[in-house]
Amino acid sequence: DRIELIAIPDEVSRVNALLAGDVHMINAVNPRSVRRIKADTRYEAMITPSPLYTDLVMRQDSLPTGNPDFVQAVKLMLDRPLINRAVFRDYATIANDQPIAPFAPYFNPEVAQTVLDLDKARWHVRRSGLTGVRLPVFCSTAAEGSVDMASILQEYGARVGLNFAVNRMPSDGYFSTHWMRHPMTFGNTNPRPTADLIFSLFYDSAANWNESGWKNERFDQLLREARGVGDQALRAELYGEMQQIVHDQCGVAIPVFISLIDGYDRRIKGLRSIPLGAFMGYRFGEYAWWDD
Fold first, then answer.
1. What does the alpha-carbon distance between residue 163 and residue 166 come to, in Å, rounded to a whole number?
2. Cα(26)–Cα(14) distance, rounded to whole angstroms?
């Protein structure tokens, strides 16, 4: 027996290959394709809630995105339920601008949920003196859901006095050419196994992938302290404070955590959800089997 891996970059082509019987498993299924897969009794879709997220990056070393009132206005104009429903067909989990998912260890539920509030967003825009400012937003299909999210942001921005110009860029080379290189871009962060890793890679002041160029001395201190703490309750307390700081001050907006969707032939047995990645965290070969 053997497993053969085939690269099919186009999602529609992947789904067609599955339904035609050319392949037996596919990953990165678009939420819009789930109903089509489930309509055929020979196939099933496995939905895995995950810490994967597409975030809106507002560089703190640029203007106007480095203005705290601008950042708060943008976070307040994100219609998270709409993004979940319209962009991801409810195959996502509402997020709160903190990178630890609600179902992950060390999640801090005490951080007050940011909700859509256009009146308050308009107040922040006026306070910042940015009413009528035109600002380009760079997005791409390389950052899952970002094109649709950018359009939603543009619509709500117009209601509070901000003029966002959506720039849709090709997926090829997006992360090397545009991500983090403009005042406002979208990023995409894959699941990481520990809170320390996600914080170290994307929020530490010295991290190469500190997307918004955000620096916070207290956060950096807590990050290093948490690594040496053996008491789980104390570590949770430290990570909880770090999430509050990120939520309140960081130039990154995280509207939802995106569920992983795999499509598969029902003759494959032993599959189960693991939130670290598609295909059981990419380890399905150790556990799944073919039952003809």
1. 10
2. 6
Cβ contacts of 259 within 8 Å, gap of 6 or more: 47, 48, 49, 50, 52, 88, 91, 92, 93
Query: Which phi and psi angles does 267 have, rounded to 5°?
Result: -75, -10
Q: What would the two tokens of residue 160 be?
A: 């509070």
What is the distance between the alpha carbons of residues 256 and 251, in angstroms, rounded to a whole number? 16
CA distance 92 to 275: 12
Q: What is the C-alpha separation between 97 and 85, in angstroms, rounded?
A: 18
CA 102, 103, 107, 110 torsion: positive or negative?
positive
- pTM (2 decimals)? 0.94
Cβ contact 41:172 at 8 Å: no
Asked if pLDDT for residue 1 goes beyond 80, the answer is: no
Phi, psi of 283, rounded to the nearest 5 degrees: -120, 20
Digit-coded pLDDT (tens) for 165-183: 999 999 999 999 999 999 9
For 243, the token pair is 């999430």
